[in-house]
Amino acid sequence: MNSYYVYILANKKYGTLYIGVTNDLIRRVYEHKNNLGGGFTKQYCVHQLVYFEITSDIQVAIQREKQVKRWKRAWKIRLIESVNLEWKDLYFDLIG
Questions:
Q1: Tens digits of per-residue pLDDT, 48-61?
Q2: What pTM does this model have?
Q3: Tens-digit pLDDT profile for residues 14-38
């Protein structure tokens, strides 16, 4: 079974947010943390994994990413804080 992830990165609590989708969350967050590929997350130092969702359907993941990207900032913050009130970097929990 394949897994797909919609994730949110931040540079600090209530800071700049980045929303993405991937089939390998650990690899993708590692790439962001190490500025591999450049772009927005490198420019704004957006490296902390603060939220993610898992689904087995790539189309569901892509639609969810698009949906969350259209949300107001306050809604995104509520989503993050519904599971991660402290804005802890969840990447380190994933890698053990």
A1: 999 999 999 999 99
A2: 0.96
A3: 999 999 999 999 999 999 999 997 7
Instruction: Give pairs for 51-55: CB < 8 Å, separation 24+.
Output: 51/7, 51/8, 51/79, 51/80, 51/83, 51/84, 51/90, 52/5, 52/6, 52/7, 52/8, 52/25, 52/90, 53/5, 53/6, 53/7, 54/3, 54/4, 54/5, 55/3, 55/4, 55/5, 55/6
Domains assigned to the chain: 4-95 (3.40.1440.10)
Distance in angstroms (rounded) separating the CA atoms of residues 1 and 23: 11
Cβ-Cβ contacts under 8 Å for 69 (sequence gap 6 or more): 19
